[in-house]
Amino acid sequence: MVGERSDRPFDVVVAGASGYVGGLVAAELAAASQDRLRVALAGRRPDRLAAVAEATPGATGWARLRFDAQDPRSCRAVAEQARVVVTTVGPYQRLGFALAEACAESGTDYCDLTGEVLFVRRCVDELHERAVRQGCRLVHACGYDSVPSDLAVLLAASAAQDEGTGALAEAILVARARGGLSGGTIDSYRAQLEALAADPGGWAVVLDPYALSPSRALEPDLGDQPDRWPPRWSDLAGGWVAPFVMAPFNTRIVRRSNALLGHAWGRALRYQEATGGRPGATGLVEAGGLAAAQGLALRAFEQPRIRRLLDRLLPAPGQGPSAAARRAGWFRSVLHARTVTGARYESVVAGTGDPGYAATAVMLTEAALALAEDRDHLPEAAGVLTPATALGWTLVERLRRRGMTLAVTRRG
């Protein structure tokens, strides 16, 4: 390890601070840290870092580090100066690995916003053991991908354990939200499609429901757990549901959490994600419309000619919803779960602000602060981790203090 973390000049380094989401995270960090922490902004262009610092109350005195995500030496220099690196530099499949590797080698805690299965799988394969040896946490998916999913299952499974009603057997998370798109999100999806086109063998990984599990051989054989299906009625959710666009990533994170915890949430847990969830004819029509719109959008992105047209119409990297649009957003994720004894629980993770940007900036900031300030209270864990396994109840309480709802109720 390169020195003790306490000897490093910065408690937190924000990599990609001059980008759209990076700027939001810098603002959240400045407001939340209240000068308690030594923070640095890192990016390729000093002029843009200076602009972010000047526009962010409380950040004008922060250090600024020149940083190139594609240069391993630059990544190592950043990692060696920080106790925690929080990065918004994506697409992670294309730009994220060198920094994650530098943190694993330097014993530096790390958190990101990735929603890319292939990137996380590579980190698991190549960095997990190195991070374990160095005693650091590499925490993926610390935004709307996949904090609500991971923590909602943690809440329900913990309540069932406390009440002695057994492990979870079945769970479906129904997500509803209002928000916008940024160029970075679009670029990440594009990058994964490009990676799959270059290596079609990657589809076997992406489509595997246990793609991110520590050991595929140790996972139960529960049959098909599809992420895409026609609108259908869910007895567990009590309404008509359609596939959720983030399910192919979020479900893998939840299953990795369960496996890292020794399947404490449920050895035979069947977990899916959906959107919609309303009963009656209105719910059926809504679920059908959501499924059709999502299917058309995904097929459009998969067609090169149509994608080129969309590239001209959709936000470019560095662009995203306005401040007014971010304030108008909201999200509500409701997990409906049944245990092996038949007990039913409902857990809710909800908040205001655009889920992909305003709320995500809060989630990522609180994850970074938990790593920087609460290390002694975090779960005993190291390696390539998830929000629930790395941060657990500490993150739950931090998000509650930020005004988000994280609650669980026994339903039967």
Keywords:
single chain; 412 residues; alpha/beta; Rossmann fold; Dihydrodipicolinate Reductase, domain 2; 2 domains; seven-stranded parallel beta sheet; globular
What would your notes on this structure say?
This is Saccharopine dehydrogenase family protein. Residues 12-135 form the Saccharopine dehydrogenase NADP binding domain. Pfam families: Sacchrp_dh_NADP. This protein is of the alpha/beta class. The chain folds into 2 domains: 5-143 and 358-404, 3-Layer(aba) Sandwich (Rossmann fold), CATH 3.40.50; 147-354, 2-Layer Sandwich (Dihydrodipicolinate Reductase, domain 2), CATH 3.30.360. It is built from 16 helices and 14 strands. The protein has helices spanning 20-33, 46-55, 72-81, 92-95, 97-106, 117-134, 147-163, 183-198, 202-206, 247-260, 280-302, 304-313, 323-328, 355-373, 387-390, 392-401, and strands at 10-15, 39-43, 63-66, 82-87, 109-112, 137-139, 168-178, 232-234, 239-243, 270-278, 330-339, 344-352, 383-385, 405-410. The strands form 2 sheets. Strands 3-2-1-4-5-6-13 form a 7-stranded parallel sheet, with helices on both faces.
Second CATH tier, the architecture of the largest domain: 2-Layer Sandwich
The arrangement of helices and strands along the chain is: EHEHEHEHHEHEHEHHEEHEHHHEEHEHHE
- CATH topology of the largest domain, by name, is Dihydrodipicolinate Reductase, domain 2
Going across the biggest sheet, name each strand in turn: 3-2-1-4-5-6-13
**Rg estimate, integer Å:** 20 Å
Question: Quick one: CATH class of the largest domain?
Answer: Alpha Beta
Largest sheet features: 7 strands, parallel
Q: Stretches where pLDDT falls below 50 for ≥5 residues?
A: none
Helix content: 40-55%
First and last CA, distance: 50 Å
Mean model confidence by pLDDT = 92
Strand content: 15-25%
Helix count, DSSP H or I runs of 4 or more residues: 16
- Secondary structure class reads alpha/beta
What is the count of distinct domains? Answer: 2
Q: Note the overall shape.
A: globular
**How many DSSP-defined strands?**
14
